[in-house]
Amino acid sequence: MRFLLDAEQRDFARSLDGLLTSCDTPAAIRSWAAGDHGPGRAVWARLAEAGVFALSVPEKHDGYGPLPLELTLAFEALGRHAVPGPLVETVAAAALLDRLGDAGVAADRLPQIASGASVASLCLTSLGPYALDADAADAVFVVDGDTLRVAAGPGPVQPSADPGRRLSRPSDGTVIAQGPAVAAAAGHAADVAALATAAQALGVGRTLLTRTVAHVTQRTQFGVAIGSFQAVKHRLADTLLALEFAEPLVHGAALALAAGDRGAGRDIAAAKVTAGEAAYGAARTALQLHGAVGYTDELDLSLWIRKARPLRDAWGTPAACRARVMAT
């Protein structure tokens, strides 16, 4: 299995990173947390123009995919820039609708997702009762056993540790599919969601490390930069190693999913737990080495710090992922 990215994939990742660098994502997150989705939807539109959501949609429905590896590259960039919104849930919903085997539903919904015209959220009740950012979504898909419905409304918004993640219990709605195909499609969608979340966590961890390294080279104690202290160097090195170890697992899981390997689910679980723990470790390192300023909401880095733990637990807790790896 080849893990090196080709030139086209590297160019795509660089172009997406450049696009997001030009966006004021911290301001978009703060507006999103206040219930103003305008700035976030503006970023969403630019991502759609770059083809991010089309990566999860087949060509026959105006997409480019499914392309799991390119999707992970995109979500690493989304994590590096902490883009708000139900990004994972939208691509997972696309995977669900594609696998249903219902040509009418797919033709009606997937082109809108590919173009960015439709923001979707997804709730699998087997994993929990909440949908992410349902109040900002154009459609909220809920899978309960072998029944798929589109929720009638988002329900009350619940507080979250991450201001860029707004949770709610979706209300009852219209059933659009029933039967064994729904459960099978939901399992595939959960794998796509776990993989995208792992990639997003990896990107969050990268930014936390980069900004912390910059901080410790500027902050001084006893007349020298704290980055020169051996304990600080060791902490940063451990964080880097964890992220470096996670990256090939994420990319390898994407390749396994693209190839349809029977063990893809196990690989995704291993990637999810490794990337999630690495990002959470990066957040703890960033918080400790920034000192008291790391706790303040005014510091933009706090938006990344507060994102790491929810991503670690979303779409498969560490315990659940480890259990899946051991079971297979």
Question: How would you characterize the overall build of this protein?
Answer:
This protein is α+β, with helices and mostly antiparallel strands. It has 11 helices and 9 strands. The mean pLDDT is about 95.
% residues in beta strands: 5-15%
Instruction: State the distance separating the first and last CA atoms.
Output: 20 Å
User: Could you estimate the helical fraction of the residues in percent?
Assistant: 55-70%
Strands, total number: 9
Structural class category: alpha+beta
Helical region count? 11
Please list the strands of the largest sheet in the order they lie side by side. Answer: 1-3-4-7
Please tell me what the overall shape is.
globular
Radius of gyration of CA atoms, rounded to a whole number? 19 Å
Task: Return residue spans where pLDDT drops below 50 for at least 5 consecutive residues.
Answer: none
Q: Encode the helix/strand succession as letters.
A: HHHHHHEEEEEEEHEEHHHH
The major β-sheet equals: 4 strands, mixed
Query: Quick check: average pLDDT?
Result: 94
Defining key terms:
328 residues, alpha+beta, four-stranded mixed beta sheet, three-stranded antiparallel beta sheet, 11 helices, 9 strands
